[in-house]
Amino acid sequence: MYQFVYNKILRLLSQQVPATGIGLFRVFYGLVTLQEICFLYYFNHLIFDPVPYIDVEFPGIPLFLCLWGMVACCVVVGYRYQFALTANYLFWIVFVNFTPMQRDFDGGFDTFMIGVGFFLLFMPGDRAFSIDGLRYKLRNPFKHYNQYPPATVSALAYHLPIIVCLGWLYLDSDVHKQFAEHWRNGLGSWLPATQPYYVSALDMSPLLNLEWLQKTIGYTIIVFQFTFVFFYAHPRLRAVYLCIGLGLHLGITLTLNIYPFGMGMLICYVLLVPFRWWRTLVDCFKPKHPSLTVFYDQQCPLCNRTVLTINHFDLFGCIDFKSAQEYAAKYPQVVAIGMDTLLTDLYALDGRNRIYSGVETYRQILLKMRYSAIFGVLLGLPGIKQIAERQYRSIADSRQRINCNVECLVDTPLPDTTWYHRVFEQYGIQKPKALSMKLTKIVITLLFLQLNSTVHYGIFYRLPLDYEKLAFSKPISQASNALLMVSSTFLGITPHALYLHDHFEGYDRILGITYVEPNGTEHWLPFVNEQGRLLAPNWGRVHSMWANIAVTPTIDNQRLHKFIMKVTAFWGQKMGINLKDAIFNIKMKKIDAPTDWVFDQLHKNFLSQWLTIGSVKWTDKQISFDMPTDINSL
């Protein structure tokens, strides 16, 4: 196996491919992280306070979330790439492992994001769609943008994250699924989508009520996950696995209320898109001829930097820039302006031979680049246009011109301090075989850590064996747990036993909470509604807290009371309820989680009747419970 892995790594290491997918991968990873930070900020009192708004244990959390948000923005735009990715990776580890997020508010994708973030530390994510790429160009303003070749990276940067973050994860998940009856019956995707706590606001009943479709989807997922790591790279199968994977995780995002998990998995599929698809997509939007030709002063450093900046953001090549000194004479409309006048402003010529200058040139640039058209519209509004013209005039009249000689054309790039450049380009080019040997050992180590998780928790943990009678089982189990703690914390390698039989077996009751006004009127909290659905924005990790920890097949009263307290205190404050004297009713209704297909099961669970089983009362910001001692017997 060592030689097989070594040969694969050596071949992929030397193969150069476009950096487009890596850049988009970084952008989407940053966006998913940013939305999760916004979610944490909104629910920070519910998640981090022992008693929301009353007992605030971590008052600095909003500050650190804002700092993390700034780091995530840097990741999205590709600014200070190595620092931003390192800081983001550390923020994920700290928040997941040293706050209540891990214990009570598991997002279902936290370890996955840590694992992906680890690989991004060593990936060339700054080679495409990044501010760092622009900073590199701006160091050499007199070097035309056409002189920069398209960025390329090692093919290994694409394949290694796919294999570890998707391929091995799927295999681990597939092993666990073999022990779940509803998955063996082909209903693995159907059952969660019939449970009120787990569904989104979209009613998927027309699809759920087609038994053949649901079983086809269920068995397809099992086959897909088992074979993915072996066949995804095959040229004829790559598009097939891409489309099935996108459909699978898009379905999770739309159907279930664990949308962060679905979106987190979707970002990895950017790496799976064939390169020709990106070229075809760009060609669909790229005009046959530039929509606007802009003439600039070649001897003005500010003008040259402006050209480089606009071209960097002109993703579809809609704008063409030409030196006024070299090309103006070829355009009669421009010659009529006169060279002295032409060099005082930024002039542009569109496809209809209309001339623009100054701020109007910038406005046309924004409009012609398409995706930035809204800013072009705003720039033309009264008031904004006048302010922009005054600012433009003050800058244009004070700019300096220089006579560029050989020295100003010398390439003085920014030093590349990324780990990818140091490891894969500097060391890899000098000693490719030595680097391949080191990477082979690392990959085999990662495989061992993954097998530790899969074999221990996916197979032996689920086999009906009496391990207490085996003398060697205890030390092996302890060692395995220690390895899993390390691999889960820093690499995101963890058991992926999601929504199996041990989760839904006995899940025959759900709870809701209503608020009773002083006049006796009863209102549902904006948490669980009359159908039993968890309402937005109580999805993701808040859903996990309520549906996976508070309300389970075997309800623990201590945990339930803790989360009822958190939910009533949090939403009480949000709704303006005075907790000096407030009463909330606890509702329960029966549902069913069958392992065999049942027609219209989702609506049957929706229509089940609620019963009031108890109440909680807040008095002077102290909570008391009047509830059955054993809810499981109801």
Automatic annotation (TrEMBL):
It comes from the Bacteria. It holds the Pfam family DCC1-like. It is a multi-pass membrane protein. It is found in: Endomembrane system. Keywords: Membrane, Transmembrane, Transmembrane helix. Residues 14-277 form the HTTM-like domain. The lineage of its organism: Bacteria, Pseudomonadati, Pseudomonadota, Gammaproteobacteria, Methylococcales. One of its GO terms (cellular component) is endomembrane system. Its main location: membrane. InterPro entries: DCC1-like (IPR007263), HTTM-like (IPR011020), Sporulation_signal_mat (IPR052964). The chain crosses the membrane at residues 21-43, 58-78, 83-100, 112-130, 151-171, 212-232, 239-255. One of its GO terms (molecular function) is protein-disulfide reductase activity. This is Thiol-disulfide oxidoreductase DCC.
